[in-house]
TrEMBL record:
<feature type="domain" description="PAS">
    <location>
        <begin position="32"/>
        <end position="57"/>
    </location>
</feature>
<keyword id="KW-0238">DNA-binding</keyword>
<keyword id="KW-0804">Transcription</keyword>
<dbReference type="InterPro" id="IPR036388">
    <property type="entry name" value="WH-like_DNA-bd_sf"/>
</dbReference>
<dbReference type="GO" id="GO:0003677">
    <property type="term" value="F:DNA binding"/>
</dbReference>
<dbReference type="Pfam" id="PF13426">
    <property type="entry name" value="PAS_9"/>
</dbReference>
<dbReference type="GO" id="GO:0006355">
    <property type="term" value="P:regulation of DNA-templated transcription"/>
</dbReference>
<feature type="domain" description="HTH luxR-type">
    <location>
        <begin position="120"/>
        <end position="185"/>
    </location>
</feature>
<dbReference type="InterPro" id="IPR000014">
    <property type="entry name" value="PAS"/>
</dbReference>
<dbReference type="InterPro" id="IPR016032">
    <property type="entry name" value="Sig_transdc_resp-reg_C-effctor"/>
</dbReference>
<dbReference type="Pfam" id="PF00196">
    <property type="entry name" value="GerE"/>
</dbReference>
<protein>
    <submittedName>
        <fullName>LuxR family transcriptional regulator</fullName>
    </submittedName>
</protein>
<keyword id="KW-0805">Transcription regulation</keyword>
<dbReference type="InterPro" id="IPR000792">
    <property type="entry name" value="Tscrpt_reg_LuxR_C"/>
</dbReference>
<dbReference type="InterPro" id="IPR035965">
    <property type="entry name" value="PAS-like_dom_sf"/>
</dbReference>
């Protein structure tokens, strides 16, 4: 009796050097080795679980989810960089891209790619959930007005958070702030 060989598409999914994830209504249906390893779980521990367990807080799960729906409805895809949480509690940056199977129902079934940014960007300090959101937006090159619109805040509130981040990270300029957020000296 001969063993069934995996199909090329199964091999590509399982051995991809980035985390791959299939979700239905934000519940993990399938993930590859790289995804499970990135978060410190076995695949068996992840399948059937909500993706909320991978976020630092419930509010970040909700807020990022709402932004994802908006961008998938508008553009058919969602991309961002965000802070996620490892099983051991460590926070780390991820680049995330997601695409729904049916653009009219973004979370009914979606395919996600997660790239672990730990080798190039460290989370070196304790940030609040809102500071993490604003940091991710700053790193994406967005202006205070753009961030305010996206997060439903006033531009003045965004500026206050930006200044708080600069003080916390001892940055004198936005360029220094970006360097510090990226984990550069």
């Amino acid at each position: 009796m001969t063993a069934t060989l995996p199909t090329p598409s199964d091999l590509a999914f399982e051995l991809a050097p980035v985390g791959l994830l299939v979700t239905r209504d934000r519940v993990i249906e399938r993930c590859n080795r790289a995804f499970a390893g990135m978060f410190g779980y076995s695949r068996q521990q992840l399948v059937g679980q909500t993706t909320e367990m991978l976020y630092p807080s419930h509010s970040e799960y909700e807020d990022i989810g709402a932004r994802g729906v908006r961008s998938m409805l508008a553009e058919g895809i969602h991309r961002d960089e965000r802070i996620m949480v490892h099983r051991n509690g460590e926070l780390f940056w991820c680049a995330v891209s997601g695409q729904p199977v049916d653009p009219a129902q973004p979370y009914a079934c979606a395919i996600w790619v997660f790239e672990d940014l730990r080798p190039v960007r460290a989370v070196r300090m304790a940030l609040t959930p809102r500071e993490r959101e604003i940091s991710a937006q700053i790193l994406a090159g967005r202006t205070s007005k753009q961030i305010a619109k996206d997060l439903a805040l006033s531009p003045r509130t965004v500026e206050t958070y930006r200044l708080r981040l600069m003080r916390k990270l001892e940055a004198r300029t936005v360029g220094e702030l970006i360097s510090r957020l990226l984990g550069l000296p």
